[in-house]
Amino acid sequence: MPDSNAAIPDSLAIVRVAVPTPLRRSFDYLLPAALALGHPGIQPGIRVLVPFGNRELTAVVLQLDSRSALQTDKLKAVISILDSEPMIPAHLLSLWVWAAKYYQHPVGDALHTLMPASLRGTASAKIKIRAIDSQQSRTRHTYPAEQQQLLNSAQQAACEQITGALGRYQGFLLDGVTGSGKTEVYLQAIARARAIGKQALVLVPEISLTPQTLARFQQRFEEPIAVLHSGLTARQRLNAWLAASSAQAGIIIGTRSAVFTPMLAPGLIIVDEEHDGSFKQQDGFRYSARDLAVMRASAEQIPIVLGSATPSLESLHNASSGRYSRLQLPERAGVANKPAFVLVDTHTQNMQQGFSALLLDHIQRHIRDGNQVLVFINRRGFAPLQQCGDCGWTAECTFCDARLTIHKNPPHLCCHHCERRHPIFRHCPDCGGKSMQAVGVGTERSEAFLKQCFPATDVIRIDRDVTRKKDELERLLAKVQHGGPCILVGTQMLAKGHHFPDVTLVAVLEADSGLFSADFRGQEFMAQLLTQVAGRAGRADKPGEVLIQTRHATHQSLQLLINRGYHALADQLMLERQSTCMPPFTYLACLRAEAINSQAPMEFLMKARALIEQHCASQLPHQAIMINGPLPAPMEKRANRFRQQLLVRAHQRHDLQQLLGTLCLQLEGLSSQRLVRWSVDVDPQDMM
Ligand code: ADP
Ligand code: ZN
Ligand code: ZN
User: Fold this and answer.
1) How far is CA 24 from the centre of its chain?
2) What is the pLDDT of residue 541?
3) 427 Cα: distance to centroid of ligand 2 (angstroms)
């Protein structure tokens, strides 16, 4: 029997490393004395080259040890040491390792996916930091320069509290209505952090959707700003990363993955639009950048501000339990007033192509007064459905449980879930009938209809189809910014943080889809979206109006939202979550499995369920864990795969963590795991 914990001679040391593999574990290697002598400073965060199978891989040192759980003669040796200083500072490395564990993701893969691509290879890290390429980070279009504002008293109080916490951890929820001047608070708090030489990290949902926000930061600060988003080249990304880690850049603005950017002198973290779903990665390493940002701030002993006009129920819960302090901006800043809301019952209206007569009247009036109108539709394409007028047959995707959307330019049908395309049907494949109809309204159809109704007015469509062309979104947004009457038609892209001073009317074509969603967060998402879209109206000195069309005008949630606002509805949803034991009152994980074979996912999840029950019986108090499923996913078939899910809830986060840690290792060992694609999503955001 070999001694499995053998001490090794002093001349040898063990390094425990993260290797980019799908295995949920770290690996031990010998550090040959010759190498160690050449690099006396070897420490966690340094990259090393190691043999792995028949390959050589770049790994990150997690730990140094003098012992290994394996026999030392079984261990392979490190080939070379790639860095002289840690690429990832120690405290950030622990956050990464913690995150991989918390989200049940293989640590090596997690580290690998988050490092700039240039560091995943063997390139020396002694790369010269180039001045951040200002061309790359500048937005292409100019916006009217905005002066620093004299803060109003609510803003002043918020800013004082935030800056008063510089130098220690404190979580803040900046809960301010749309247009209340949250960004102005960020800017002035950051200026205070900069004045004492500290760096600020600002996380935003999607930079490309809101070039104006970036422009505001760039106008305000006369210093390099490192910008990190998915559109960068490997070189640009590395430059921004190094500029942040050397403190050459005092301000770092980035999307989700920027939460892992090292800072030499961290001072403040801001998460803008904290409710936004894009902070949660939906595949691979399924982390929440918002939640990790809070962990990070606490580890680095700095304040963090989560800002939103429509805070997530999670953050509201953290605020009311005292975990965050709540800062409120109840009024719009400057001269802007809150817009007036009108709910339009489409049953009582004469409707044309989705537009009520009342809405068309309003559009006409606002245009005539020289203002801009924003029409929100949550579907792109011409129409969401092609149907036979004779027998009712509808065109569906053969690979998904979904209908095909009609697009007109060029004419085709398209599945928005798997991107599969199909020619438009001329005849009904079922009854041979010739009266094929386009049912429902998408952005393309509304655009065409509005052009027909208002031939003298610019109609600008903004959705993913139009903005596929590089820089097109920025060009269109700049056009709107420069003013003049126009009608904007678009999807949620228009809801995100834009400041359109000339928009006085916002119309929501159909508010109903979120009311009856299969997702337990459906109503929360609907309320956030409607409030955010509505918030684009009347942001400057002109009063705004919001018209919301619905077939369910008496729906209680909609009534509550319109009459008493987002927080009143949030309070009610919170009570429902509490009585149904859903987050934020419990901790949730979703175990998903999918396969071409329709039975395999269910069988796999049945095994998982049995393992969970075993674990609970032996390790946890009665009813510590609630299990639902396996159940078909709300969209059971997608991209030709059958999908099932198992929901696991716990009253204690720790119980869930312990359970999932054991379960994942057990599942990795099952032979049937090869028959399915499976994943664990901790704190899932999207249940579809
Ligand atoms: P939010 O981020 O909450 O949506 P912004 O910071 O974008 O709000 O502010 C909305 C508008 O109000 C901007 O045009 C901004 O310049 C202006 N603003 C912000 N604070 C003030 C203030 N204290 N006085 C006057 N105008 C302000
Ligand atoms: Zn038919
Ligand atoms: Zn499909």
Assistant:
1) 24
2) 77
3) 8
Q: Residue 446 corresponds to which amino acid?
A: S
Q: Which range in 31-35, 113-117, 323-327 is most confidently predicted, on average pLDDT?
A: 323-327
The string over 580-611, giving b where at least 16 C-beta atoms fall within 10 Å of a residue's C-beta and e elsewhere, is eebbbebbbbbbbbbbeeeebbbbbbebbbeb
Q: Which ligand sits nearest to residue 404's alpha carbon?
A: 3
pTM of structure: 0.92
CA of 608 to the centre of ligand 3 (A): 28
Instruction: Say yes or no to pLDDT of 528 above 60.
Output: yes
Distance of CA 662 to the CA centre of its chain: 28
| pLDDT tens-digit readout, 386-438 | 999 999 999 999 999 999 999 998 999 999 999 999 999 999 999 999 999 99
CATH code linked to domain 587-682? 3.30.70.360
Assess whether pLDDT exceeds 90 at residue 325: yes
Q: How remote is the CA of residue 385 from the centroid of ligand 2, in Å?
A: 14
Ligand 1 binding pocket mutation candidate from 146, 183, 184, 499 (most atoms within 8 A of CB): 184
- Where do the structural domains in the chain lie, given as residue ranges? 6-120, 151-329, 340-383+440-576, 587-682
Please confirm whether the linkage preceding 630 is cis (ω < 30° from 0). yes
In angstroms, the first-to-last Cα distance of the chain is 51
Choice among 185-194, 248-257, 512-521 with the minimum mean pLDDT: 512-521
354, 399, 400, 445 from 419: Cα distances, Å: 26, 10, 10, 20
Nearest to 496 by CA among 273, 242, 229, 236: 273
- Which of 221-225, 601-605, 658-662 bottoms out in mean pLDDT, i.e. has the lowest? 221-225
* Residue 537 near residue 575 (C-beta atoms within 8 A): no
Whether the domain at 151-329 and the domain at 340-383+440-576 fall into the same CATH topology? yes
- Residues near 618 by beta carbon (within 8 Å), at least 6 away in sequence: none
DSSP structure class, residue 126: -
Structure tokens at 138: 């500048």
Ligand at minimal distance from the CA of 401 is 3
CATH 3.40.50.720 fits 340-383+440-576, yes or no: no
Strand order in the sheet with 170-176: 225-228, 251-254, 199-203, 266-272, 303-308, 170-176, 325-329
Atom 24 in ligand 1: residue holding the nearest Cα: 334
How far does the centroid of ligand 3 lie from the alpha carbon of residue 141, in Å? Answer: 37
Site residues for ligand 1, CB cut-off 6 Å: 146, 149-152, 155, 176, 178-184, 333-334, 499
Task: Look up the CATH number of domain 6-120.
Answer: 3.40.1440.60
Q: Which residues contact 55 (CB under 8 A, 6 or more apart)?
A: none
The fold of the 151-329 domain, in CATH, is Rossmann fold (3.40.50)
